[in-house]
Design goal:
Elements lengths: L8 E7 L1 E2 L11 E2 L6 H19 L3 E9 L7 H14 L1 E12 L6 H10 L3 E7 L3 H6 L6 H14 L2 E8 L6 H14 L3 E6 L7 H7 L8 H17 L4 E3 L2 E3 L6 H7 L3 E5 L4 E6 L2 E7 L3 H11 L3 E6 L2 H12 L8 H8 L5 H9 L3 E3 L5 E3 L7 H9 L1
Parallel strand pairs: 1-4, 1-11, 2-3, 4-5, 5-6, 6-7, 7-8
Antiparallel strand pairs: 8-10, 9-10, 12-13, 13-14, 15-16
Helix pairs in contact: 1-2, 2-3, 6-8, 11-12, 11-14
């Protein structure tokens, strides 16, 4: 993997609607039992893109990510209108990566062909599990068979596709996960996102877990499942390039690398976050999470931004460290020093190296080791102190 491209600029577009709310999900997603006025939302997306472009000026867009929610509930013409608006207000680089997230329940071959025609060139499928009992526990509306059919449709429509799986699920053993992962790799062309199940506050799973009705693997078993993940993926040529993402060399998700490398991106749509550089100042933006409220704000003001904070040097440096150390490529300490105005403490680096949590390459890059990744939060906290 090559180093960071300083000129990378991503556009994230959030489609907030889902067919149902998964019990583990704390993303900004909403279920509506009436038809969504997609034309009205498409106009609002275009307006917010226009306002953002007027604020930051010209950019070369290197990646676009349509996330959610369930973006595959959008009509292809809605996707086309959004991509057209991005191209109208910014220059879209040759070879731009345009990813759309999809759920197996909303995958149709004709719709995928429509997305391809609209300009999408990569899809990411929310498969989550390859056995029906686990899918039911996770609140998914599709079966394992439907998921694999969706992957086959993606394979036929797009050169680049990925899918997600959740592991460390209730009652899951390393042996069960090994078989599931081997099967998944057999279906994956170049990229897999593999997330440990986390219990997020405010979700139904949080209440069940607190009441003892949902048991997740203990620390030792979770570590064993993580180790199995690394070993099997590496053996099949899909090493982790980020703590939860695996790809063949060159097939990494370019849009997500924008986040992890601390680069600039616009957040468009309800509940979208952005990092924008204006006159040398980095702004952290967030829009209204409520879809209809966001819609009315955009129609009235041209944008739905609710949070628009400047980040000082220390905040930017902490974010750079937190995101960058998730990557296998690690960070350049010189860039950290340029952002923060101070170098990382060499004594802390030496201590973490001694403990086997980090390593420093010959070119000076600082990387978290395989042993350090399971305790990444502690490593970041120690270096940032």
């Amino acid at each position: 993997m090559t180093g960071a491209d300083a000129s990378a600029f991503g556009v994230y577009v959030h489609w907030p609607f889902c067919l149902s709310k998964c019990p583990y999900c704390d993303f900004n997603s909403h279920v509506r039992h009436v038809a969504i006025d997609q034309e009205r939302f498409a106009r609002a997306f275009a307006r917010e893109i226009e306002t953002t472009a007027a604020r930051i000026g010209p950019r070369d867009v290197t990646s676009i990510f349509l996330g959610g929610g369930t973006p595959s509930l959008m009509q292809p013409q809605t996707v086309g209108a959004i991509l057209e608006a991005i191209g109208k207000h910014w220059h879209v680089a040759n070879g731009v990566e345009v990813t759309l997230e999809a759920n197996p329940t909303s995958v149709e071959a004709t719709r995928f062909a429509g997305y391809r025609a609209a300009g999408v060139n990569r899809v990411s499928l929310g498969v989550q599990a390859l056995d029906d009992a686990s899918l039911k526990t996770l609140g998914r509306l599709h079966t394992a068979d439907e998921a694999m059919k969706a992957v086959a449709i993606a394979r036929s429509a797009f050169d680049r596709y990925s899918f997600d799986l959740i592991y460390a699920r209730p009652d899951q053993t390393p042996q069960m996960w090994s078989g599931e992962l081997e099967r998944a790799i057999g279906e994956a062309a170049e990229h897999l996102s593999l997330y440990q199940l986390t219990i997020e506050e405010g979700t139904p799973f949080f209440g069940l877990h607190a009441a003892g009705k949902l048991k997740t693997p203990d620390e030792g078993l979770a570590r064993a499942l993580y180790d199995v993940t690394q070993e099997i993926c590496s053996r099949h040529g899909l090493p982790a390039y980020e703590i939860s993402n695996h790809a063949r060399p060159g097939a990494e998700c370019r849009h997500n690398l924008v986040y992890w490398r601390g680069q600039e991106y616009a957040g468009i749509g309800p509940g979208a976050h952005g990092r924008l550089d204006v006159n040398g100042v980095r702004y952290a933006t967030a829009t209204d999470r409520r879809p209809e409220a966001w819609l009315m704000r955009v129609e009235a003001n041209g944008h739905g931004v609710m949070t628009d904070d400047t980040l000082n040097r220390e905040e930017r440096a902490d974010e750079f460290l937190l995101m960058g150390l998730r990557l296998a490529e690690g960070i350049d300490p010189k860039r950290y020093a340029a952002i923060s105005g101070r170098a990382l403490d060499p004594r802390r680096i030496a201590l973490l190296r001694e403990e086997g949590a980090i390593m420093v390459d010959a070119d000076g890059r600082l990387r978290v080791t395989q042993e350090g990744f399971p305790v990444l939060d502690a490593v970041v906290a120690d270096l940032a102190a």
